[in-house]
Write a structure and sequence with these properties.
The complex is a heterodimer of chains A (529) and B (494).
Chain A (H helix, E strand, L loop, with lengths): L8 H7 L18 H13 L2 H20 L8 H7 L2 H10 L8 H30 L7 H5 L3 E7 L3 H15 L3 E6 L2 E8 L6 H22 L1 E8 L3 E7 L6 H6 L5 E17 L10 H5 L4 E12 L2 E8 L5 E3 L2 E24 L5 E9 L3 E4 L4 E10 L6 E9 L6 E5 L2 H10 L14 E19 L3 H20 L3 E9 L4 E9 L3 H15 L9
Antiparallel strand pairs in A: 1-18, 2-3, 3-17, 4-5, 4-16, 5-6, 6-7, 7-8, 9-10, 10-11, 10-16, 12-13, 13-14, 14-15, 17-18
Helix pairs in contact in A: 3-6, 6-9, 8-14, 9-13
Chain B lengths: L1 H13 L6 H25 L6 H24 L3 H29 L7 H23 L2 H19 L16 H30 L4 H22 L10 H5 L1 E3 L1 E4 L2 E2 L11 E3 L1 H23 L3 H27 L3 H7 L2 H4 L4 H7 E4 L4 H22 L1 H7 L3 H34 L7 H21 L5 H25 L8
Helix pairs in contact in B: 2-3, 3-4, 3-6, 3-15, 4-5, 5-6, 5-7, 7-17, 7-19, 8-10, 8-11, 8-15, 10-11, 11-15, 17-18, 17-19, 18-19
Chain lengths: 529, 494
């Protein structure tokens, strides 16, 4: 992308004929026989734009395949096994089609693209750099007249006056004007946005930077997850591992762990809903549905060598960062049992009148029911995995010496349903004396799954993105504009040979150049000059 | 640049004033018919006149009228036509803006969080940018394409399920959503404008009508086969059920939402529309015949005739599908739902609140709509080829617009990808997940990167650049709409 804009090569070459002493012939001299030849050809091949275009087309095709065919990292192994017959699956897996973006040949393609960018840029960079290092401040009159925009004006003032006027106007239009004298000929030269010449290299460099950031992330970073119940702490990360074959992954889930230099503790987990929930007994459907949940908040504390360093709240879109590690809310579930449970006990007193009492206990607690002399101790509580129903199991001792009764307790609605569905004796829903117990409120203990990522390359990637944007802005919206004016003294007055060019947006530049010519025409100049 | 063009306008002005009475009458008649359909449905919906649905319905009436006039403008260059069209666009745009504002207020977030919202915003931005580009390049002709595309987008949005009251899932509650999606919309709009400029370039450059005809026929064949292959959201009965058995997927919406039914049980919603199958078969055969005849280079007269037939066949089949799908009563559909599923609902409210809808088939309807409009444009082009070519701006200008717009689209695409990556990194801890939508965006980016390399380094301007920009836009559509409906991923909600 050394030349730019709507440009066609030949024009550009003609424009720069005055500034390019060595447009071709940059091929190194052949030293050795076949080997040097081979190296030479390889480098030449690597530096062609054609290779770049082919690579882009190949990448488009590969990406397309990668979007159409489900990929291992985003698809459950069972789904893949359902989708493809086993021999095909093995073959696709071996070819890397099921994990294209991590296949060795995909990395090789990217590497080749990187090399292509490097060599193609190196090949052309010297030309662009010459514009900056050695601007063509002096051109012969013939070359100035050969510029895309050119004009000749006769001024009725002597050389010195003409110089002042032209310098002033060129300075106004383009920028700071310099005067160079060679062979007794004075040329006024000005240019602007010369750095636009480097835009293409900036863009390509930024791509390399982004690649580099990605590679650093792959090499030195990792991704994994940790799962914690409220109150628990850990310093171990279970890594994601997408590199294994599909068959292996489903049959043998392998855990790879990494130790972090600090410990993470889940102090408190809570879920906040968009609208208040009707029932105080939460179900998994409620706490996990993105449609009703506003966000999940986990208060995490960070510990090093037994000392608490800091506390942060993690939520979706609100990750925790600590010492290069970042933690993202990714899964939320019930933990082990409920923290606090409220039971309603419905009995009949001696007169046969219904009698309701509410008992609240904490985890591991117990309560006494005077009617019948029961003592209820909590055995287990939680939300059933499959049926998604909150439950508690109570162990009830009576002072009458009979063996204790294990009673599953649900909310009233569920208990009614169970009585309808299940035959009367298969599951106990009442105590022998007819006492019924329902769960009416429960404060669950939650567990959270956090994704952990450690990516030292990410800042490099952002730097690359910013460079990329700057490069694109320069490439598309800034053009390198140059104007030359040669002053030829006449017997009466001075002839100004004006020439100028821009490496893109030529029509806009042409307009500007015409304005300059117009301003310099004698009738438009103030009389005193 | 402007000098060349003012010359042209003067020239056009010297020609005898073209007849515009009939096109005007037809457009207004069409708008009237549409209004007879839209307004009662607005009143029936009961949400009143101040609602996104009502605003959009009204906007559509005016957009359709304006589109008809602007397409006529291709063949009959009359400034009066444009003036009337501009008035209609203005009215439509006001309603459109109203719909967006209302949706925004109800949803409490800018309307860019799902495909429906993105489509109405896309159309809005397209109309706005079309106006801007007209101011810069004085290309009235650009509207003749941009406004119909915007109209299509709004029409498409109305057949998509929408729920303004939906609160955003936690992952989407981020300011980066708006930044990311705004870049996406504007870059896609720029790509659309480059596409339009490219098509105009090809017309002006006198690409043979046969080529356009062949592309149109191929598009029709591809659309019919494509909607049949992919059109049904139902995985078990995916292939060739429309064509072979006339089975069409219609859906019941319950309070504006899909009735949540397990994927496996969705087959009961398949309703046989026997005539739709037959009509589509005919349309397919005619288009196939057209494709073959174009390929064999038969006489022009035959070719035009077959193009007309295929247009009519498509029009009729689209009409049959719509009419017969919408004429199913709610009860007829409910009868097909197994009682196990129905038991989850209060059946009486369901029967009252559920509405028959073809919204579960946006892909099918979009495909048919696009094929229809393309066929229509081709017929207009072929009937007034000389007049249209003569009235188009110079190829140089169109080529420059093409390039300039791509130089706007490309940085925007880059920003879209970069902000998306940044947001993903904040939300999921990784800036790149090789999610289908991400890869799709990358494909689009690469295609336009290749375009720029070919143009800047290899001097590919003109026709080749135009074809390139058209291919680029196809990839944009694939990424924008195709991936969301056909492939699962992180962008599943968009």
């Amino acid at each position: 992308m050394a030349q730019n804009g709507n440009g066609i090569r030949n024009n550009e070459a003609a424009n720069d004929s005055g500034t390019k002493p060595n447009p071709t012939g940059e091929v190194e001299k052949k030293v050795g026989p076949a080997r040097a030849d081979f190296l030479d050809n390889t480098i030449r091949f690597l530096s062609t734009v054609r290779l770049g275009i082919y690579l882009m087309i190949i990448l488009v095709v590969v990406f397309f395949i990668g979007t159409i065919i489900p990929q291992k990292p985003n698809t459950a192994p069972e789904n893949l096994q359902r989708m493809f017959a086993p021999p095909n699956l093995v073959m696709l897996d071996r070819l890397g089609i099921l994990d294209i973006f991590h296949a060795w040949w995909f990395k090789a393609l990217l590497m080749l693209l990187g090399l292509n960018i490097v060599f193609a840029s190196l090949d052309r960079f010297s030309n662009a750099w010459r514009y900056i290092q050695r601007p063509a401040k002096w051109l012969t009159g013939a070359v100035i007249r050969a510029q895309r925009e050119h004009a000749e004006i006769h001024l009725k003032v002597p050389l010195a006056g003409a110089e002042r006027v032209v310098t002033k106007h060129i300075g106004k239009m383009v920028g700071h004007a310099q005067i160079t004298e060679r062979d007794g000929q004075k040329v006024i030269f000005a240019q602007r946005h010369v750095y636009a010449r480097l835009a293409a290299y900036g863009i390509h460099l930024s791509l390399l930077v982004i690649f580099a950031g990605g590679l650093i992330g792959l090499e030195f970073g990792y991704r994994g997850q940790i799962s914690l119940n409220e109150g628990e702490s850990t310093s171990k990360v279970i890594l994601f591992d997408a590199s294994r074959s599909v068959v292996e992954a489903s049959s043998n889930p392998r855990m790879v762990e990494r130790e972090m230099p600090f410990t993470l503790r889940l102090d408190k987990a809570e879920v906040v809903f968009n609208n208040p929930q009707e029932s105080s007994l939460l179900r998994r459907d409620d706490i996990q549905s993105p449609a009703v949940v506003k966000n999940w908040y986990c208060t995490m504390s960070l510990w090093e060598n037994g000392a608490e360093k800091e506390t942060q709240v993690v939520a979706v879109n609100q990750p925790l960062s600590y010492r290069g590690y970042r933690f993202f809310q990714s899964g939320f579930d019930f933990g082990e049992g409920f923290k606090e449970l409220t039971f309603q006990v419905r009995t009949r007193d001696a007169a046969g009148l219904p009698h309701e009492t509410v008992y609240r206990i904490r985890k591991g607690g117990s309560f006494a029911i005077p009617e019948g002399g029961w003592v209820a101790a909590l055995v287990r509580s939680g939300v059933m995995t499959q049926a998604d129903i909150p439950f508690a199991v109570l162990s009830l001792h009576s002072d009458n010496g009979k063996p204790p009764v294990q009673l599953p307790v649900f909310d009233e609605g569920t208990t009614q349903k169970m009585r309808q569905v299940a035959p009367a004796n298969s599951m106990q829903t009442k105590l022998p004396n007819g006492t019924e117990i329902f769960l009416i409120d429960a404060i669950p203990e939650f567990s959270t799954t956090l994704q952990v990522s450690r990516d030292p390359g990410v800042m490099i990637v952002w730097a690359g993105c910013i460079l990329l944007m700057v490069g694109l802005m320069l490439a598309f919206y800034y053009s390198h504009q140059r104007v030359w004016a040669m002053l030829v003294p006449l017997q009466e007055g001075t002839t100004v040979v004006l020439g100028g060019d821009s490496n893109k947006s030529r029509s806009a530049f042409a307009k500007k150049f015409q304005q300059l010519v117009h301003a310099l025409e004698p009738q438009n100049l103030p009389p005193q000059t | 640049m402007s000098r060349i063009h003012t010359g042209q306008i003067a020239e056009a002005g010297m020609q005898p004033a073209p007849k515009i009475l009939w096109p005007m009458l037809f457009s207004f008649l069409g708008m009237g018919l549409l209004a007879m359909f839209v307004i009662p449905s607005i009143l029936r919906s009961g949400s009143g006149l101040v609602s996104p649905g009502a605003f959009l319905g009204l906007a559509i009436i005016f957009y359709v009228g304006a589109s008809a006039l602007l397409i006529t403008y291709l063949a009959r260059r009359s400034d009066r036509l444009v003036l009337v069209a501009k008035g209609l666009i203005l009215v439509a745009f006001i309603f459109h803006t109203g719909a967006i504002a209302d949706h925004w207020m109800v949803a409490k977030h800018p309307p860019i969080s799902n495909i429906f919202e993105m489509l109405i915003s896309f159309a809005w931005a397209l109309v706005a940018l079309d106006y801007v580009f007209q101011r810069i390049y004085r290309l009235k002709i650009l509207s003749s394409f941009c406004v119909p595309i915007a109209t299509l987008a709004v029409l498409l949005s109305t057949i998509l399920p929408t729920d303004p009251a939906r609160t955003l899932p936690p992952a989407l509650q981020s300011v980066w959503l708006y930044i990311h999606v705004t870049f996406a919309i504007f870059s896609y709009v720029a790509c659309a404008i480059a596409f339009v400029a490219s098509v105009l370039y090809l017309v002006k450059d006198r690409v043979k009508l046969e080529t356009f005809g062949m592309i149109t026929q191929a598009l029709s064949v591809g659309t019919i086969l494509g909607i049949d292959w992919l059109g049904n959201a139902d995985t078990a009965h995916r292939h060739f059920n429309i064509l072979l058995r006339g089975e069409f997927f219609i859906n019941l919406l319950y309070r504006g939402r899909d009735i949540p039914i397990p994927e496996m049980e969705k087959t009961f919603l398949v309703t046989a529309l026997p005539w739709a199958g037959t009509m589509l078969r005919i349309a397919l055969l005619v288009s196939l015949a057209g494709l073959i005849l174009y390929w064999m280079k038969t006489s022009w007269k035959t070719l035009i005739r077959v193009s007309q037939f295929s247009f009519v066949a498509q029009l009729v089949s689209a009409g049959v599908i719509l009419v017969s799908a919408l004429s199913r009563s709610t009860q007829q559909c409910l009868d097909r739902i197994p009682s196990v599923v129905l038991s989850q609902f209060d059946t009486r409210t369901l029967a009252q609140a559920a509405t028959v809808s073809v919204k579960s088939n946006p892909f099918t309807l979009a495909g048919i709509l696009v094929a229809l409009v393309t066929s229509l444009l081709f017929l207009i082009l072929s009937s007034r080829h000389e007049a249209i070519v003569a009235s188009l701006p110079e190829t140089n200008l169109l080529d420059e617009v093409n390039y300039k717009v791509v130089t706007i689209a490309f940085p925007l695409l880059t920003l879209m990808i970069a902000t998306g990556a940044f947001w993903a990194n904040r939300t999921w801890g990784s800036y790149w997940n090789w999610d289908p939508k991400e890869v799709g965006a990358l494909i689009t980016w690469l295609v336009y990167a290749a375009y720029l390399h070919m143009r800047i380094v290899r001097g590919w301007a003109g026709r080749r650049a135009a074809y390139f920009a058209i291919v680029g836009f196809v990839f944009v559509l694939f990424t924008f709409i195709g991936i969301s409906y056909l492939l699962p991923g992180l962008h599943a909600y968009a």
